[in-house]
Prior knowledge:
single chain; alpha+beta; four-stranded mixed β-sheet
Amino acid sequence: MSNDVNIYGIKACDTMKKAMAWLSDQGINYTFHDYKKVGAERSKIEDWLKQAAWDALINKRGTTWRKLDDADKQNVDNEQALRLMLENTSLIKRPLLEVGGKIYLGFKPELYQNIFAR
Length: 118
């Protein structure tokens, strides 16, 4: 496994804080990509869509999804999801952890423990 560890999200998110604290407590070096400051790259989201379904990548429980026009939430496919995530990075489930090019969604200590035990 590659040593490249990237975590994507928003700094103010409580779950992000927990995930980054866990990584730091374990001595795992990572690069944090803040959507609010740097956005999200189209090619990166396209890669994520190859690894996970669009409805796993989009946080449908969040206020950003709920505030979208109903038309934007109808008949969503990968292209529509890509457009929505580029326009509204807060839609992307967080944290999104990328280790050696593979992605993991959300944070649970046991999930992270299994990822880094390999």
